[in-house]
Write a structure and sequence with these properties.
The protein has two domains: about 80 residues, Roll (SH3 type barrels), CATH 2.30.30.40; about 325 residues, Metallo-beta-lactamase, Chain A. Helices cover about 15% and strands about 30% of the residues. A hairpin with a 4-residue loop joins β26 and β27. About 50% of the residues are buried. The structure holds zinc ion (ZN). The site of zinc ion has 6 residues, from loops.
Length: about 425
């Protein structure tokens, strides 16, 4: 990609905030933007502070006495006093979309064992309400709950997100046990503003109970806004710098989408997010073929996607591969359309058919398409580490960051960075 220009925004400060009444009796000022950081000061509602920096879920603030620290973002409201200022140097991008050198969109694909649990944080300029770089938080699926009630996604988020933090959108791709149960814990600890559901008529009593839970939760005293079915999703505004499109969800009829678990997988919400010249495609468990079919032609949800939005609308630099890398997804026409540079597999120690996920034949298809492709897996080293259960999760988390131009991937296994799977075995 040739970068002809980018727009550089340097945030030079000064946003006045006031501590909200909801922080009663007081909001703890922490020394770092982390829930376990020490706190020596607690400030009461109504007190004014000055914003001087940002981190996901936090504002770096200066107090009246000149000292500084970190307050939870949801404890603060913008105040009329002061005012933010930006210095802007405009260059331009090849794609014509303004990007900012230090404005990072971050996607955390958390190792939840067998399942999906994803947290997305959009860039944050610390200026609430200016319509871009708003620091939105989006959760896609919650992973499974294991028998101990431990949820890897919640554990991951709690280190950064204080209780009652705002989750702007919770998206449940489809009603399978490796996707939604962990979201129950997200509802318990955070305030969810909008809920997206494919609207598949599941008969699962556990899922119906989950939906009841969503219906009874509130955010700032109001019910969660629920979007049930693709027709209700619209075009979410997560900041004007990102283009968010829901490409697919259960079409309302099971015709042509298989049966049983295959049908439920093919109800999955498919979401594409573009930021500058980089883009992400989140596939849920949408499938492309039966087990007895070859990969040359696309069926099921992949066939629908190739018809609408069509190959041009599917392209993504980063693909969260469908259905944990099973052989029933990722047909060749689909891979050709997406043409990803980075493939993320979220899977655990689970056999699907005769082989463990992700299926080697699926990985081979990506490597055949592009031998330089980089594949990152949340089941990194799990076989060697003798993981045996679906829910075994040991922190093989993958973090992808982009400022709209550059793309960075950080992956850790047992605390050590790991490299992508290369196609050298191809
Ligand atoms: Zn799944």
């Amino acid at each position: 990609m040739v970068v002809t220009s980018i727009r550089l925004v340097a945030w030079i400060a000064v946003q006045a905030f006031v501590v909200r009444e909801s922080a009663h009796p007081c909001a703890k000022v922490r020394q770092r933007p982390a829930t376990n950081a020490s706190s020596k000061v607690c400030i009461a509602p109504g007190v004014q502070v000055t914003g001087i920096g940002v981190a996901p879920f936090w504002r770096h603030v200066r107090l009246a006495n000149g000292k500084s620290g970190w307050l939870p973002k949801q404890a603060l409201a913008a105040s009329g006093a002061g005012g933010a200022s930006l210095t802007t140097t405009t260059i331009t991008t090849a794609g014509g979309v303004a990007a900012a050198e230090d404005m990072w969109l971050t996607v955390h694909i958390v190792d939840v064992g067998q399942g999906d649990g994803i947290w997305i944080h959009t860039a944050d300029d610390g200026i609430p309400g200016n319509g871009r770089f708003e620091g939105r938080n989006i959760v896609i699926d919650g992973g499974p709950n294991d028998a101990d009630g431990r949820t890897a996604l919640l554990d991951y988020m709690r280190s950064q997100a204080p209780d009652d933090a705002i989750i702007d959108a919770l998206i449940i791709t489809h009603p399978h046990d490796d996707h939604y149960p962990g979201a129950d814990a997200i509802l318990s600890h955070y305030q969810v503003r909008e809920y997206y559901d494919p609207g598949y008529p599941s008969t699962s009593s556990r899922y119906r109970a989950f939906r009841q839970r969503v219906a009874h939760e509130t955010v700032d005293g109001q019910p969660i806004t629920q979007h049930i079915g693709l027709a209700t999703f619209g075009h979410p505004d997560w900041g004007s710098e990102v283009d968010v499109r829901f490409l697919y969800a259960y079409p309302g009829s099971p015709a042509g989408l298989g049966s049983d678990n295959t049908l439920v997988n093919n109800a999955s919400i498919v979401l594409r997010i573009a930021y500058g010249s980089q883009s992400f495609l989140f596939m849920g468990d949408a499938e492309g073929k039966g087990r007895d079919q070859g990969p040359a032609a696309a069926h099921y949800a992949e066939e629908r996607l190739l018809a609408n939005p069509g190959p041009g609308g599917l392209h993504a630099t980063v693909l969260k591969v469908a259905h944990h890398g099973s052989e029933t997804s990722s047909t060749i026409p689909f891979i050709n359309a997406v043409d990803p540079q980075v493939v993320i597999v979220s899977s655990g120690r689970r056999k699907y058919g005769p082989r463990y996920l992700p299926d080697t034949s699926t990985l081979h298809r990506y490597c055949t398409h592009n031998p330089a492709i980089r594949i990152y897996r949340t089941d990194e080293n799990d076989a060697a580490e003798h993981h045996t259960r679906n829910t075994d999760a040991d922190g093989d988390d993958i973090v992808v960051r982009t400022n709209g131009v550059a793309l960075l991937v950080e992956a850790h296994s047992a605390g050590l960075p790991f490299n992508p799977t290369t196609c050298s075995w191809n």
